[in-house]
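As the work plan foresaw, the team has encoded backbone shapes as discrete tokens. One protein thus recorded appears below exactly as we store it.

:::
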Amino acid sequence: MRHQNRNIAIIGSSGAIGQAITERLVLDQSIERIYACSRQGKMFQSKKIVSAVLDYKNEDSIHNAAKIIGKDNPLDLVIIATGFLHNEDTTPEKSIQDLSHQNFIKNFMANTIGPALVAKHFLPLMSKEHQSVFSCISARIGSISDNRLGGWYAYRASKAALNMTLKNLSIEASRRFKQTIIVGLHPGTVDSSLSKPFQTFVSDDKLFTPEYAAERLINVIDNLELRDSGKIFAWDGSMIDY
């Protein structure tokens, strides 16, 4: 994939990881244009970056953003960096007694449904001339085989569902979008508002800055091959089991 990421779309460019990835990629001289998509249409200073409004909760918004972006050259790379874990009203569940309809809906909307709808409208925009990558921020906590602690029902379930969605997409892509690699990416524990309340037991060497996480994830993307489609990779390039 190296030197082929000429046209890129980053969904969730206003978040900690999405912004760090955007600011990292803009320095790459081989990149012609970055479409930075967010709900507020966050502006960036670089002329390489085209800001676009995209609300993952609204399929019309996703469709409209894809329609505008699709008028230009095909996309070589899509990175979906949206996600939800908690806010002032909801926190990850410690036990079954904490389950709520609202929390499940919020997690699945951001972590599963939104990315699936982005794929629906953005996969047809991917380059058919050479290898391209459609990627989404996933999480090791979505691995069923790696679950040893329990809890965090809605978040775990939504990420596991995301991983299944990416696997499904990779199978369909092998027939319809044969040059596109579909992968999930685990960034590690990143120092952001999403992880802030849960950093107490994270050692300093395992708490990454958004900039470091962005650097490592881009390195993983650069080294992907078609045979990697449908897999989930951690920030260090290791594969995560479903």
Notes: The chain has a mean pLDDT of 91. The CA atoms of residues 107 and 155 lie 6 Å apart. The chain is about 35% helix and 15% strand. Strands lie at 7-11, 33-38, 49-53, 77-80, 132-137, 180-186, 189-190, 207-208, 232-234, 239-240.
